[in-house]
Structure formats: structure tokens, C-alpha cells
Write a structure and sequence with these properties.
This protein has 187 residues and is of the alpha+beta class. The protein is built from nine helices and four strands, in the order H-H-H-H-E-H-E-H-E-E-H-H-H.
Length: 187
């Protein structure tokens, strides 16, 4: 990976409030997760330790993304507890940065959370999903008909609709994101 000057990207980004205000889709679901999310005492101990690092973060995202509807509010709340200021960039408007953080070296999967120090050096990257959420979507996709089947498109839309509904209403799924981000920040 090429060395990225992260500070200009951070400066360019929107605050969480600006991002939510600009959302055209999924705002209600994102807000619900944000408002209902709760942390345990051991979570708070980790967030307190992370706060000592004086980190900031850049989030590559988009409002249409189901994974962002879950992960953005979870990581935003973690960041608030950890005193990590996050700035939001829309993926398709920032492909130069996105292409430095491809999933599996090929996919522009989002959201991607890039944690940086005050000098702008990347310290940790998390995203686009917790392993458990990845297993869930893989399982759901495995039930789809072949891509050339006449009902593929309709069934795929239904799978993604049901997936988004499940991940934005089930606190057990939210917990998988908390644990995955916690492991990354502790590692």
C-alpha cells in the first residue's frame, strides 16, 4: 500500500452531524441504531484506553449502503466514547483514497474506518463488516438462484432488504460489530 497523506482527507471530511443531515436514504435506520446502542462496562474500559492515544478517524461510506447503516452509528458511538473525532467521506467522490483500502485487494466495499494519529499516520483500519455479519450475508446470498435466473434480481432485492432490516434492529448483531472493532483497536 502506498503511503497516504491522511490529514488532508480528514480535513476534507464531514462531521457525523453533516453526514446524517445529507443522507437521502437509511437515515431513520442509522439513527435508530445510534440512539438504541448500549455499551457494557468492559467496552467503556477499552474506549477509555483508546482515548489516551489521541487518534482521529476517516470514514469512507455512502448512505445507500446497508452495512454503513449498521456500522457507522456503532463506530461513531465508539469514537465518541474514545474521544476519536471521525470525519466522513462519500466513497464515490473519494476513489483515490478508497482504492488504497480495497477489501480483498479488489472490492470497494464500505464502510471503511481508517484510524490515524495526529501526524496522519494510519494506525488501524476496520470494515466493512464484522465476521458474523459477513457470515450472515454469505449465508443469505447462498440461497439465491443463479444470477441468470429470471427471478434473481427480485430475490436479491428481497435478500438485501431483509438483511438491512435484520442488521438495523437486532442488538445481538450490533454487539458483533462492537466486539470486532474492540478487537481491532486492542490489537
Amino acid at each position: 500500500m502506498a503511503t497516504v497523506a491522511h490529514n488532508p482527507w480528514f480535513e476534507k471530511g464531514m462531521t457525523f452531524e453533516q453526514y446524517v443531515e445529507a443522507m437521502k436514504v437509511n437515515r431513520e435506520e442509522l439513527t435508530r441504531v445510534y440512539e438504541q446502542l448500549e455499551f457494557f462496562a468492559d467496552d467503556l474500559a477499552v474506549w477509555k484506553e483508546v482515548a489516551q492515544r489521541n487518534w482521529r478517524g476517516i470514514v469512507l461510506t455512502a448512505d445507500w449502503c446497508g452495512d454503513a447503516t449498521l456500522n457507522v452509528p456503532v463506530v461513531q458511538k465508539i469514537a465518541e466514547q474514545s474521544q476519536v473525532e471521525l470525519r466522513y467521506l462519500i466513497r464515490d467522490e473519494n476513489l483515490e483514497l478508497m482504492d488504497q483500502y480495497l477489501t480483498n485487494g479488489t472490492s470497494r466495499a464500505i464502510p471503511i474506518f481508517i484510524f490515524i494519529d495526529q501526524e496522519g499516520e494510519m494506525k488501524a483500519v476496520w470494515g466493512p463488516r464484522s465476521p458474523e455479519v459477513q457470515e450472515l450475508i454469505t449465508s443469505l446470498r447462498s440461497q439465491l438462484p443463479a444470477a441468470d435466473a429470471p427471478d434473481f434480481e427480485e430475490k436479491q432485492k428481497n435478500v438485501y432488504r431483509d438483511f438491512k432490516q435484520q442488521i438495523t434492529t437486532d442488538p445481538a448483531i450490533w454487539r458483533t460489530v462492537i466486539e470486532s472493532v474492540k478487537a481491532k483497536l486492542q490489537g
